[in-house]
Amino acid sequence: MADVPSHAFASDNAAPAHPKVIDAIVAANDGAVASYGNDDATQRAAEAVRTVFDSPDAEVLFALTGTAANIIALAAAVRPWQEILCSDIAHSLVDEAGGPVRLSSAPVTPLPSDNGLIDPALLDAAVARRGPVHHSQPRIVSITQSTENGRVWTPQAIKDFIGHAHDLDLLVHVDGSRIANAIAALDISAPDAIADADIVTVGGTKNGMLMGDAILVRRPELFDGIHFVQKQIGQLASKQRFVAAQFEAILGDGLWLQTAAHANRMATRLSAGLQALGLPMAAPTEANEIFVDLDPAAYAAVSAEYSVHRPDPLLPTVRFVCSWATTEAEVDGVLALLAPFAT
Ligand SMILES: Cc1ncc(COP(=O)(O)O)c(C=O)c1O
Fold it and tell me: Which interval of the chain is the signal sequence (predicted)?
């Protein structure tokens, strides 16, 4: 038994930064440059984000965490009497300590989902109470690609969902903390992974960066004041060149999709192995996250060696997340520990 459990599957943000990212930071560490994003690296990184998402008219902001990127995007979308919709497992709802509510003063209302995938028909009911002064007014719906439970929105599904939301006069935010995993898993273009979304947070931290997520504001006129929200919550990094350099490094030569594809491959290997052992999967494995139900003995065996997350302590579901750095040996190590619990 290991003295200290490995964090290889705890989360993709437990992974180290990719060496090319570190090299890029070192290269950016040269002399004095303009601060607060007025530097050349920031302009180049913003252009790289615009280019991969084929959004020439978008504004790009950079934040230090995915939580901050979501909060900035959502808080800039609404006024206090409006409402933010999202899935019942959305990170913005469950895992941001109420940040979007605090910064926007608008409620965040969950919609039922299939592991984060929302039926577009549910939006009709959500907007039905619009109008009277007594009710919060739905303004934006946030969806996650890939979802918190590791599912992906196919190009058709996300296109239909966003089309319907727009028909209902709702804006759409895509939490793309793991968008590279969705793009790689579906083998689609980046624009197809976000369809006609109005604003997208683009993950870097979970995909090999040291830290940093981008905000792609595709309809800037609808997010008036977003730069002030970013500044107010302390997310306009004065030394932004170092975040920008990381984005240049991962986007420039397709590294972000190579790292994501590797994470997905490791997840597929682990998922296939768990299923071969007859262990019950709690969600389909479609990107880099695996959810499996383990009885207490199996959980104890695996968690002695690997730190793993149990989203709900009352349920037997255990989450494994693979990253760009996960190895086949680590995957096979988990499977060996669980082999005695095969059914
Ligand atoms: C779907 C999703 N969005 C956003 C975040 C936030 O990222 P961070 O931990 O960098 O704030 C996470 C992190 O786990 C996430 O899973």
Answer: none
* pLDDT category of residue 46 using cuts at 50, 70 and 90: very high
For 97, other C-beta atoms within 10 Å of its C-beta total 9
Spatial CB neighbours of 140, under 8 Å, sequence gap ≥ 6: 74, 77, 78, 82, 84, 85, 170, 171, 172, 173, 198
Atom of ligand 1 nearest to the CA of 65: 10
pLDDT in tens, 160-181: 999 999 999 999 999 999 999 9
Place of tokens 């790689």: 184
Q: pLDDT for 223-260, tens place per residue?
A: 999 999 999 999 999 999 999 999 999 998 999 999 99
State the helix-helix crossing angle for 241-252 and 40-52, rounded to 10 degrees. Answer: 40
Q: Which residues line ligand 1 (CB under 6 A)?
A: 13, 65-67, 70, 91, 144, 148, 175, 177, 205
Phi and psi at 198, nearest 5°, equal -85, -30
End-to-end CA distance of the chain: 24
Q: Going by C-beta distance under 8 Å and a sequence separation of 6 or more, which residues neighbour residue 274?
A: 281, 290, 292, 335, 338
pTM to 2 decimals?
A: 0.97
The protein residue whose alpha carbon is closest to atom 8 in ligand 1 is 66
Q: Ligand 1 centre and the CA of 177: distance in Å?
A: 6
The count of other CB atoms within 10 Å of the CB of residue 226 is 20
**Phi, psi values for residue 215, rounded to 5°:** -120, 115
Beta bridge partners of 215: 61, 201
Residue-averaged pLDDT of the chain:
97
Separation between Cα atoms, residue 204 and residue 21, nearest integer Å: 10
Q: How far is the CA of 134 from the centre of ligand 1 (A)?
A: 33
